[in-house]
Amino acid sequence: MPQKVEFCHLVGTPGGIPTDQTGFADVVRGPLRLLLSGPASSGARATPDDATGPGRNRIHLIVDDLDAEIDRLRDADRAFRSELVSGPGGRQILLADPAGNLIELFQAAG
After folding, report:
1. Percentages (nearest 5) of helix, strand, coil residues in the chain
2. pLDDT tens, 86-100?
3. So what's the pLDDT on residue 64?
4. How far, CA to CA in Å, does 102 sit from each of 1, 17, 20, 31?
5. Cβ(100)–Cβ(60) under 8 Å?
């Protein structure tokens, strides 16, 4: 059975939405959680130069063991769009689906 996804992660300048010192805004509306990352956030640092335009977003998947997922995907010959990036909230890496949409694999700190 498909899992219900309850959030997405957009990278860009969240105009009109207050952000904290890290450049993030967290907007919750019922079961939907929208994470907005400013240009100084670790999410923006991982974004490849050709994918930094306004309105660009990505699918944000939280994993328990990022290193194991990276190894599994590399063994399946999947190409990554970024290097592994660490920030105050955790670690992440980007890859793209067959249509070119960015997918962020994220493991929370701690």
Report:
1. 15, 35, 45
2. 887 889 999 988 888
3. 93
4. 24, 23, 24, 23
5. no
